Amino acid sequence: MFFPYKDDNPRVLFPFVTFGIIILNVLIFLGQFWISSNDPDIGKSLVYMYGFVPAEFNPLTIFTSMFMHGGFAHIIGNMWFLYIFGDNVESILGHVKYFMFYLACGIGAALAQFFVEPASQVPMIGASGAVAGVLGAYMIRFPKARVHVLAVIIIFITTFVVPAQIVLGLWFLMQLSGGLGSLGVDTTGGVAWFAHIGGFIIGVTSLKYFQNFRIE
User: Fold this and answer.
1) Distance from C-alpha of 76 to C-alpha of 78, rounded to nearest angstrom
2) Residue 33: predicted pLDDT
């Protein structure tokens, strides 16, 4: 198991949008947690109301689902990856285009999961797909950036520095492996692997378009 904890890639712009997305996600999650702690049934109904359910395709919930999470590990993992890699992608795109790019990756992630499991009644929540797009863009734009990684090997814990293309490439292969393994298997309550894969691919393939896109 490996976990990146920082990179050596200095930001150019202050990441207002990245920090704003993180703060918004945390506030919404804390609200979810408070509601679920006081009334689990209401908490569950909120997930079904604002999560993206493929079988009940609702474009609005594609957006609302991006800002909900299923637990502390879920939100901490997503927001930590966004914190490490989002600032540099925001620097190359600018604040407005970066936010548009983030949403586009989240939309692509939801659609990818929909095409794979269109009859699923399981609500999909989380920023994982949008964050995956940011990781894909970072890998393409900064393949040689030095990423510091914490690794757990059996009972040993160590750290090392590797190029971003290795860290994020391995991350994508893990998602691909999980996605292929889920085909034909009941994934109720599991990970929306193809949302991660879809978001990552959108991030890789659309970065150049967003860089060249002009906002008048």
Assistant:
1) 6
2) 94
Tell the residue number behind the tokens 């408070």, with chain if given: 34
| Adjacency order of strands within the sheet including 2-7 | 2-7, 146-153, 156-163
What string of DSSP letters covers 114-170?
HHH-TT--SPB-SSHHHHHHHHHHHHHH-TT-EEEEEEEETTEEEEEEEEHHHHHHH
How do residues 174-210 score in pLDDT, each as one tens digit?
A: 665 554 444 444 444 456 778 888 899 999 999 999 9
Q: Which amino acid appears at position 24 of this protein?
A: L
Q: Can you read off the two tokens belonging to residue 66?
A: 């991006």
Closest listed residue to residue 114, CA positions, set 163, 175, 58, 75: 58
Structure tokens at 35: 């509601």
Report the DSSP beta bridge partners of residue 160.
Answer: 149
Check: pTM over 0.85? Answer yes or no: yes
Query: All domains of the chain, ordered by start, with CATH?
Result: 11-144+186-212 (1.20.1540.10)
Pick from 139, 21, 159: nearest CA to 88: 139
Cβ-proximal residues to 140 (8 Å cutoff; 6+ apart), any chain: 203, 204, 207
pLDDT in tens, 137-181: 999 999 889 888 887 766 666 665 777 877 776 766 666 555 444
Looking at the DSSP bridge assignments, the partners of residue 158 are 151
In terms of Cβ atoms closer than 10 Å to its own Cβ (0-12, 13-18, 19+), residue 160 is exposed
